[in-house]
Design a protein that fits this description.
4 helices, 3-stranded parallel beta sheet, Rossmann fold, single chain
């Protein structure tokens, strides 16, 4: 899934730094919090869940947007639209369009 998301984002002009798990991703953020504009993470990961990564990342930069992905049934396919009253969760399976819309909306809201 990580490689698929990376390819979709790169193909659409985004610079992507990948990490093998939440601990590695947190290390990237800790080294240079200003270098990361958005975190995209699965909720279920080894060593550090996506929601834990979000909390830890926000201790370094509280305005950092985070898009979490989930394949669990309680998240609608394509996800709920990001917004203050809804979690920033993209349900799996999702389309390239849904991913790009969520990413763009979160980046625009962070400006």
């Amino acid at each position: 899934m990580r490689e698929l998301v990376r390819r979709l984002l790169v193909r659409n002009g985004y610079h992507v730094i990948t990490a093998s798990d939440g601990i590695e991703a947190l290390g990237v953020i800790e080294r240079d919090p200003g270098a990361v504009d958005l975190v995209v993470s699965d909720i279920v990961m080894p060593r550090l869940r996506g929601d834990e990564l979000e909390s830890a990342a926000r201790s370094w930069r509280d305005d950092l947007p985070v898009l979490l992905m989930s394949g669990f049934a309680h998240v609608p396919a394509g996800g709920a639209p990001p917004g203050p009253s809804l979690p920033n969760v993209l349900g799996k399976p999702f389309t390239e369009t849904a991913l790009l819309e969520h990413v763009r909306e979160l980046l625009d809201a962070a400006r």
